[in-house]
Amino acid sequence: MYLKTYTLIFIVFYCVSAMANAAKCDKYKTKLEKIQSQQRLANSVKKSNKLKERELKAFKKWRKCQQGKLKK
Questions:
Q1: Cβ atoms < 10 Å from Cβ of 35
Q2: 9 — pLDDT class (breaks 50, 70, 90)
Q3: Is residue 6 part of a domain?
Q4: Backbone φ/ψ region at 40: left (φ over 0), alpha (ψ -120 to 50), beta
Q5: Integer Cα distance of 39 and 9 in angstroms
Q6: Among residues 2, 6, 20, 31, which is most buried (max CB within 10 A)?
Q7: 8 occurs within a structural domain
Q8: CA-only gyration radius of the chain, Å
Q9: Domain presence at residue 7
Q10: Percent of the chain whose predicted confidence (pLDDT) is above 90
Q11: pLDDT 10s digits, 18-50
């Protein structure tokens, strides 16, 4: 019985922690989506390459934030 209770408490805290972390990373996700929307527009080759680099950087930062590895 105690094992089930502790497991349930752990799962609840884990879910709350994950939701709080996701809310913290929303600004990085928004920036990534903005860059991706710019990529869908007609661009020169030079600008397309720069947007691709920016997208990769933004994606890496967003993923690090989600994983909790982003420096504060």
A1: 18
A2: confident
A3: yes
A4: alpha
A5: 44
A6: 31
A7: yes
A8: 18
A9: yes
A10: 58
A11: 555 668 899 999 999 999 999 999 999 999 999
Count, residues in the chain:
72
Kindly state the helix (H) or strand (E) to which residue 9 belongs, with its residue range: helix 2-24
| Host domain of residue 11 | 2-67
Q: How many domains does the chain have?
A: 1
Find the helix or strand (DSSP H, E) in which 61 lies: helix 45-67
* Residue 72 forms part of a structural domain: no
Distances, alpha carbon 40 to alpha carbons 26, 57, 60, 63, 72, in Å: 21, 18, 20, 22, 32
CA distance 50 to 64: 21
